[in-house]
Amino acid sequence: MTWKITNQSLDNHQLLVDESLFSLANGYLGVRGNFEEGYSDKMASIRGAYINAFHDETEITYGEKLHAFPETQQKILNIIDSQTVLLYLDGERFSLFSGEILSYERNLHMDKGYGERIIHWKSPNGKEVVLHFRRLVSFVTKELFAIDLEVKPVTPVEKIEIVSIVEGDVSNFVDKSDPRVASDHAKRLFVSEVYEHEHYHILKATTYSSKFDVACVTTTNVDQNYSYKSTVKKTSTEEVYEVSGDSSFRFTKLNIYTDTMRHGDNVVEQGIKIHKEIKKETFEDLLKKQENYLTDYWKKADIVIDGDNKIQQGIRFNLFHLLQAAGKDEFSNIPAKGLSGEGYEGHYFWDTEIYMNPVFLMTNPELARSLLLYRYSILDYARQRAKEMGHAKGALFPWRTISGTECSAFFPAGTAQYHISADIAYGFIQYYLVTGDGEFLKQYMAEVLFETARLWIEVGHMYQGEFRIDNVTGPDEYTCIVNNNYYTNAMAKHNLLWAEKAYHILKETDPVRLTELTESIHLTAEEVRQWKVAGMAMYLPFDQELRINAQDDSFLRKARWDFEKSDEGKGALLVRYHPLTLYRYQVCKQADTVLAHFLLEGEEDLETIRRSYDYYEEITTHDSSLSYCIFSIMASKLGYSEKAYQYFIETARLDLDNTHSNTKDGLHMANMGGTWLAIVFGFAGLRIAEEGITLRPSLPKQWRSLQFSLSYRGRLVRVQLEKDQVTYSLTEGDILSITHCGEKQELHPNQDLVIPN
């Protein structure tokens, strides 16, 4: 139950949701959970396959275009469709929407990494068959999408036909009514080659503008005697197997996807080469490799909850899809919807560093490192963007992007969110604190911190002895273009002071590298001095009357939003009100100041944090899925245990239960990371500091126990929370000191440390 997702619904609305829920991916390639045989003509489907970062550039159209508005954006593309497998029993086409379904079961196996459908079907003419579809997107051979179909006739059938189609004439999904989904540029890919070579069926497609190529090289096989024919059409290939219906048989389809960015210009040749490397592997072999990969992943990433099977299932579902979504090369990151759908057009946001990378940082540091190196790879674009925005120096990372340039056309809630540069710097700092990787600091982190710190000197200014940052937007997109957003200022302060610290670490540990770096970016000692001065003088808004941190200079002067009136409508406020209407009120889309208190809680005393939490809770809509987990974490810190659990519940099964009613467009990846944060940073009270890691566990009363693992400085620590005690076990690595509830504790290999509650 808790290791698989099962659904037996054939309701059209749920099928669209299931296409996201049952999607399979490996960080490079993703395939939505569509039916191989298709649907009825009257049913909607978002049929899709995607390669992470494979995109085309599209023109952004403005009514009035001003300086430095982005001219183009990137858009992840729906690529060649290799899912189709049709079945005919004596001429009757199998469909779940005709005949009679005697039994139907659909499963996603999260411990084994594959999806399946098991169907007992009776045709309109009374022919019965049991079909077992299985599919996987390989974590071991990243280019591979495999389908296996076992056919078991139940009643006499003379002839069974299997028709395998690979189609290159595909389009992206659009929805003009929802700004979170693309509304234009559906067709950005054309078939440039289609042919058969030896036993390979080959399609190559090319993007209109970026001129990237993608190829799908397919082989098929039936394990019984058959007659066979194949056809090459203008945009597709078709293979037809005719098999006797007197016994069971299996059909296997292996699809290898390659693209220009990873495989060079010879994408077809590379696809054939990969096929030859795996040609001796059966589908069962592929399943075994998949399971072995996931066994290693779950050893470090699994969270075990005793007391609520639905929550247990939810957290494993979230962790499984996070692994599937995470880019594992220098070209890619984590799209906001993973590789499960087209919402937000496959763009990468600040979500990665703040909500998702911490999961990998504490369970799979190498993967966390890879995600950060993607940001380093686009540093030159961030430098260029800073110059476009009128800054002489620094790096302004794009609000949303794939290849590195800004894709957000709505600057008040896009480019103005300068905090993304500090968020990325924060991610680099967290990685360094957890791993102690000095080489990473020398080669990558220092340069990112130096360039982002430069940005704040460019943007901010000293006023009455305080460093202030005007005209920016914080995480709360219902309040835009403000002076001294608390979150932005606090994160900028952290960025500035750590940049100065990294400079001196490098000066002490590798002065040669420091000289090399400072010369290459023309950094002066005076700039470093300015970082410290600005950081120490950073203005953090505080309201003397309410004794809370003001979200910005003007926020508390506005009228409070009338929630009773707005509750009469349905859906997020952003789709029901003009932005200017929202900007004029005290109403928050998501955690903003409260988020800063989580990430940088040392900036304020506990009572200021408490009063601020209480205040902002009353005016936050949580229209963003990023919000609940932060309110849960801070409720745990403040001792609001019931609130902490209720906010957590909102995150745990958001997609499984489709609580935001838009899971059809793809999964909410940041919320999935937030679920983990709410458990580990919330209930377990984990914090990461220069001095080490600290925990302050508090088991929810709804659970009997909670168990998870943490990777830290080459060690693996298992933590088990029970009603009356907490047990720490050092399962890998040398002696480690941690802090538990304010007291230092020492962990030794193979010795459980049991601490009574």
TrEMBL record:
Chain ranges of the Glycoside hydrolase family 65 central catalytic domain: 316-676
PANTHER family listed in its UniProt record: GLYCOSYL HYDROLASE-RELATED (PTHR11051), MALTOSE PHOSPHORYLASE (PTHR11051:SF14)
Domain Glycoside hydrolase family 65 C-terminal: 686-746
Family indicated by similarity: Belongs to the glycosyl hydrolase 65 family.
Domain Glycoside hydrolase family 65 N-terminal: start-end pairs: 8-257
Keywords, sorted A to Z: Hydrolase
GO molecular function: hydrolase activity
Highest classification ranks of the organism: Bacteria, Bacillati, Bacillota, Bacilli, Bacillales
Taxonomy, superkingdom: Bacteria
Protein name, entry field: Family 65 glycosyl hydrolase
